[in-house]
Amino acid sequence: MTYEEALALAKQIAMADPEVKFAEPDLIMRPTMVPNDPGYAYQPDLYPGTPAGINVPAAWDRTNGAGVVVAVVDTGYRPHADLAANLLGGYDFITINPYLPGVSPNDGDGRDSDARDPGDWCTSDPNRQTSSWHGTHVAGTIGAVTNNGRDIAGVAHGAKILPVRVLGMCGGYASDIADGIEWAAGLPITGVPTNATPARVINLSLGGPGTCGVGAYLDYFDAITKARNKGAVVVVAAGNDGADAANTVPANCPGVLAVASVSSSGSRSWFSNYGPTVALAAPGESIYSTHNTGTTVPGSDKLSYLSGTSMAAPHVAGVAALMLSANPSLAVDAVTSLLRSSSKPFPASCTGCGIGIVDAAAAVNAAIAYGGTNRIDESSFFVQQLFFDVLRRKPEASGLSFYVGALNSCNGNSACLASTRANIARGILESPESRALYPELNPSSSSYNDAFVTYCYKLFLQRQFDPEGGVYWYNYLNSTGDYTGVVNGIIASSEYRKRFGTP
């Protein structure tokens, strides 16, 4: 019997017998896990009760991420002793291209099944750097072996890490990264063996200037859309330019969870990108994780502190893995929605940092409570999701109550509900707050109809419109002027419903 079933039975018992003062499930309590890894003493980012800590020990009492694969699309991996047991084979997607000088795989070969990181040092100005061992550090935050009496603890230490190497000397090509994303999700890539262990979570701690779906970054858009359709939650670092993440790709791709970095006090890190593109925040300063001593070629295992939104994103990826382990039936945007709704508030103002700081225990509890249903038909969940998708924030209590009241006044009448849902969605989309976020939604503009259709797809379906669908709705709008009809057609579609569960 599930907790929800037990709770319902307890309510029935209490209502049926006047002698019963109250009835509730008698829950089993267990001690909260505190790992014996010595490095855990230097991981306040995982603790409860700290301003930025993600409260993971209480989540470990319910799940450790077992049964979930998390892809780390990055520089590859080193077989660190505190990581090796949780690593899958992975793949190296870095292409040797004599016509595109500047990026080298550093391992003397092209694409192959060896995803080990040979070092990504770069001697070319202005990108001169020593080897970062970036992918190994990210992987440790997500899935370091835990409670083994050595090194550190990983957020989802029961999960398996799938290393996908796409960054080599001086960076990586967008085409290689896109192929790596698709392969990680279990999609076919020409000339590459099929991935037998598709990832439910893909971490992208990488990025650069650009716009998703435009020019060279059309590959990103296609890859992320395909990965999401395969059931993968895509978590992306917001970027480290101290600027609007709307100008950083793939953080600005539809459907991703862009993660900002906060300091130990819960304030935005000085380097972190920000803005409405950002979904959530997580600790990203002085994060202690698996690393290597080498400055060029690999040396010995070590632990190191690194900072960046690259370090923040894997906290969220790890929590997503915990949620999917606790409830494997969760659809992609059930995960992203619950991560937002369960996040904890910022201790102080954190403009542009997203909805809140990820809270592992609350997220796992929300995942378990979600069950196997599609909750988009629930009035409060529907309204909350509109706020997440369009306004990038949680609804205030008064707004939530107002809209839910309007839906409840339909008393279950399907035609009334459909009309009211569409009017609420359109009202939020065309609100002054929305237009401040998306200046293209200007009713006085001659291109307003085009922008309206574009944003209905981008915000409600979390993708760019396909030519067939986009042209249909654009022509419909031009001929009828029925903006509510466009919204209704999209939010009533099976594609919209599939975001949150079985259509």
From TrEMBL:
Residues 108-119 have a biased composition (Basic and acidic residues). It comes from the Bacteria. This is Peptidase S8/S53 domain-containing protein. One of its GO terms (biological process) is proteolysis. GO terms for cellular component: extracellular region. The active site is at residues 74, 134, 310. InterPro entries: DUF4214, PBS_linker_sf, Peptidase_S8/S53_dom, Peptidase_S8/S53_dom_sf, Peptidase_S8_His-AS, Peptidase_S8_Ser-AS, Peptidase_S8_subtilisin-like, Peptidase_S8_subtilisin-rel. Keywords: Hydrolase, Protease, Secreted, Serine protease, Signal, Zymogen. Residues 124-133 have a biased composition (Polar residues). Belongs to the peptidase S8 family. Residues 104-133 are annotated as: Disordered. It is found in: Secreted. Its main location: secreted. Residues 65-344 form the Peptidase S8/S53 domain. Residues 380-437, 448-500 form the DUF4214 domain. GO terms for molecular function: serine-type endopeptidase activity.
